[in-house]
């Protein structure tokens, strides 16, 4: 039995997510370096990145930080787990940028965000919609892991 399979046996879904994150995290040599992960593990990590950033500071925090460089990868991760409501919200957030794709360069993203003060109400609205948690990201993520278990560990 793999470590991920053992993690899936835990009783609490949040504990399962935490444990799987720890297992995958051991493969990440430094922050934002995911080259040792396969696409399935990256999907898990990308969903966690958005959840952590938006929950702790909203979409502006997400795009302002280094995590914003993964906006499009995160979008694809949410497609992979079928988080339809979150995909809609993230799409709207991405579309607030004057250029698509969202710049990978953090300094460029920060300049854009600081120029777009008029969009503050739109960012706040997206945050509030995100906080409603219409998609059960934990359940969707666990279903994704279970479906693709051979690609974990």
How many DSSP helices?
9
Order of helices and strands: HHHHHHHHH
Structural class: mainly alpha
Oligomer: single chain
> Largest sheet, described in full?
none
**Between the first and last Cα atoms, what is the distance in angstroms?**
10 Å
Rg over CA atoms, rounded to whole Å, is 16 Å
Q: Specify the helix fraction band.
A: 55-70%
Mean pLDDT: 94
Query: Segments where pLDDT lies below 50 for 5+ residues?
Result: none
Q: What's the shape?
A: globular
- Strand percent estimate: under 5%
Counted beta strands = 0
Brief summary of the model shown:
With 153 residues, the chain is mainly alpha-helical. 63% of the residues lie in helices and 0% in strands.
Q: What does this protein structure show overall?
A:
The chain is built from nine helices and no strands. The chain has helices spanning 3-7, 13-25, 39-55, 58-64, 71-80, 84-95, 106-115, 120-131, 137-147. The model has no long low-confidence stretch (mean pLDDT 94). The protein has 153 residues and is mainly α.
